[in-house]
Amino acid sequence: MRILAAMSGGVDSAVAAARAVEAGHEVVGVHLALSRAGGTLRTGSRGCCTIEDAMDARRAADKLGIPFYVWDFSERFREDVIADFVSEYQAGRTPNPCMRCNEKIKFAALLERAIELGFDAVCTGHYANLVDGEGGLELHRAADNAKDQSYVLGVLTAEQLAHTYFPLGSTPTKALVRAEAAERGLTVAQKPDSHDICFIPDGDTKGWLAEKVGTATGDIVDREGNVVGSHEGAHAYTVGQRRGLHLGIPAADGKPRFVLEVRPVSNTVIVGPKEALATALIEGARYSWAGAAPVESEFRCHVQIRAHAEPVPALAVLSDGAVTVTPDEPLDGVAPGQTAVLYLGTRVLGQFTIDRTESAVPVG
């Protein structure tokens, strides 16, 4: 096959490209330039799209003896990922930019261009597996549960899966990938993993949002409507947050309080006890299936609401253009805007963006 290897500059994508070459495929490496303000180098292990990363990717491609290109996707990234991130926070939701990047950039814009240029598939260093099932190609968890990335790939469709290649999915541990990179002479063998949001490399999401949308003083209130503090912008808060509230009035029971809800229209943040974060139901109308869609409109599954959260047994119901999921036990601290990924065993069934939640602990 003709394979376009997306090379981030990290060890995973470098080894994935190497395995594609070793498997006999015709491989071309490409690094995505996602920012036009690329004059800064990586600090520590934050980010994944710096000039330093592009240079690391080029060195890996040279070592593998494959052609290498840098493609400018900065405008598409700005519109589909960064602008979406800002607007979601302004609407009081908690977005996942990595999900949007996979959906809109790596497996939409990149894959579209790859197919136009005659490539059969895009290869990445994600830890996930593709399996031929009765209903067609299926997306499954990786062998290494600690590194499994099937959650952030839950946005992929059947058509996209048909043109995707994940060489690392069956590797038992990340340590083996690093050892293989060293054996192959790849200089990124011990390069730290990237983390945090790549376009906020210093990790200060609150400060970054304040620069983008400004500040506006508002109230922090408890579930009964009593003002217990103030803030400089509701967009800087997310459901489940405890740190940085600086409440002027302590709770009657002396226990910590957490963000329960963000109301952007009134610029209000609602806080309450930890037990009030328990969520009995989630619902969303923006959903997709990673392969064949469920046959029944009501089915048992597991639901996962964060990349490294434990999956929870649940009942899913498709009705009136939306997916409603009722977990067997309450979910903890779910925010609108988060992505819920549905599993059947190790298989990813699909995903939806959470629009509505219902608390398991009513007021009063």
From TrEMBL:
Keyword Methyltransferase among UniProt keywords: no
The protein's Enzyme Commission number: 2.8.1.13
Keywords carried by this UniProt record: ATP-binding, Cytoplasm, Disulfide bond, Nucleotide-binding, RNA-binding, Transferase, tRNA processing, tRNA-binding
InterPro entries the UniProt entry points to: MnmA-like, MnmA-like_C, MnmA-like_central, MnmA-like_central_sf, Rossmann-like_a/b/a_fold
Native source species: Microbacterium mitrae
The protein's name: tRNA-specific 2-thiouridylase MnmA
Family, per entry: Belongs to the MnmA/TRMU family.
Site positions per UniProt: Interaction with tRNA: H126, Q338
Record's GO cellular component terms: cytoplasm
Subcellular location: Cytoplasm
Residue span(s) of domain tRNA-specific 2-thiouridylase MnmA-like C-terminal: 286-350
Catalysed reactions, semicolon-separated: S-sulfanyl-L-cysteinyl-[protein] + uridine(34) in tRNA + AH2 + ATP = 2-thiouridine(34) in tRNA + L-cysteinyl-[protein] + A + AMP + diphosphate + H(+)
Domain tRNA-specific 2-thiouridylase MnmA-like central, residue spans: 208-272
MF annotations from Gene Ontology: ATP binding; tRNA binding; tRNA-uridine 2-sulfurtransferase activity
Gene Ontology biological process terms in this record: tRNA wobble position uridine thiolation
Leading EC class: transferase
Location of the active site: C101, C198
HAMAP family named among the record's database cross-references: tRNA_thiouridyl_MnmA
Record's function text: Catalyzes the 2-thiolation of uridine at the wobble position (U34) of tRNA, leading to the formation of s(2)U34.
Chain intervals for the UniProt region annotation (Interaction with tRNA): 147-149
Binding residue positions for ATP: A6, M7, S8, G9, G10, V11, D12, S13, L32, G125
Cysteine disulfide links: C101-C198
